[in-house]
Write a structure and sequence with these properties.
Elements (H helix, E strand, L loop, with lengths): L1 E6 L11 H12 L3 E4 L7 H15 L3 E3 L23 H7 L12 E2 L5 E4 L15 H6 L1 E2 L2 E2 L2 H4 L6 H19 L5 E4 L15 H6 L7 H9 L3 E4 L6 E5 L2 E5 L14 H8 L1 E5 L5 E4 L2
Parallel strand pairs: 1-2, 2-3, 5-8, 8-9, 9-11
Antiparallel strand pairs: 1-12, 4-5, 6-7, 10-11, 12-13
Bound molecules: fe (ii) ion (2 copies).
């Protein structure tokens, strides 16, 4: 049995400075042996790495991480700069590889033949409504509102290409485990359309474009991956689709919290503790 604490989108800079201590307390009281943090620790690489270090120090267990879009943002303080004047996002992505437990380094073997595989992933625009053209979606602006990655990321290559790179990396990693059927796959982006924002919110028919790609779910189905962890969308999910259990447990921005006066309570509600057991069992325990 291996106990794992799962959490994403902690956005330390937009939630609470007490979080690393709180996460440490919660993982200790649950007896978690490792943690999966599925991206968006903070805005910018320096801030994300500093946050990871503080969490690791408090929790005292490995903190396996995949890069979120916010973690690679290049100008946390100068968000109104044009992305064209900024360094390439690949550079920021590579800086995050200095975190030794960044899952982009390759699969990690756990007890009982279980494995962890992961990478941040990116979006391929495919979750948007069909009424929008690719050119409109590449603009990342709708009715005067812009998607913030437009200003804060600057990949060489279009989003679909960035996505395909990450999808290929994830496929390679899952193969490398030699045991996809006992692999926990982690992305930051949303892997299945079921977890996008429902189209009763018209602007989200546009902005869903930047949430992820259904190719990740397709990959999990093809390879019989039993458990997928993701973040990015600040809604919590635990649902099984086509044989894969999907867990999304974001903390989100403080303004989104149900218990905004109590970071401990909110964090406890967001964090999931799962147990990977023998015979492919995935159980959940309370903190
Ligand atoms: Fe987030
Ligand atoms: Fe995100």
């Amino acid at each position: 049995m291996q106990k794992i604490a799962v959490l994403s989108d902690i956005h330390i800079d937009r939630s609470s400075d007490e979080l690393p201590g709180i996460i440490g307390e919660l993982t200790a009281s649950a007896g978690a042996e490792l943690m999966i943090l599925a991206g968006d620790v903070a805005n910018g690489t320096d801030e994300a790495l500093a946050g990871l270090k503080r969490i690791r120090n408090h929790a005292g267990i490995p903190v396996y991480f995949v890069a979120g879009n916010h973690d690679i943002w290049q100008s946390p303080q100068g968000a109104d700069q044009d992305s064209k004047s900024q360094p390439d996002s690949w550079q920021a992505y590579n800086e995050l590889l200095s975190w030794p437990e960044n899952l982009a380094h390759g699969p990690v073997s756990l007890e009982g033949g279980w494995q962890l595989a992961g990478c941040g992933g990116w979006y391929d625009l495919g979750f948007a409504g069909r009424e929008f053209t690719r050119e409109q979606l590449l603009e990342m602006t709708y009715k005067g509102k812009g998607w913030a990655d437009r200003r804060n990321t600057s990949w060489t290559g279009e989003p679909e290409r960035v996505h395909r790179y990450f999808l290929g990396e994830l496929r390679r990693q899952i193969r490398e485990t030699g045991n996809p059927e006992r692999t926990v796959a982690v992305t930051h982006v949303v892997p299945h359309a079921s977890f996008t924002v429902p189209s009763i919110f018209p602007t989200w028919r546009f902005f869903n474009a930047y949430l992820g790609s259904g190719d990740y779910a397709e990959l999990y189905r093809e390879m019989n991956v039993p458990l997928a962890v993701f973040g990015h969308i600040h809604h919590r999910f635990d649902r099984t689709l086509a044989g894969t259990r999907y867990i999304g447990c974001p903390l989100g921005y403080r303004r989104e919290w149900k218990h905004s006066d109590d970071p401990r309570r909110e964090c406890k509600e967001a964090m999931k503790i799962i147990e990977l057991g023998p015979e492919d069992s995935i159980n959940e325990t309370r903190i």
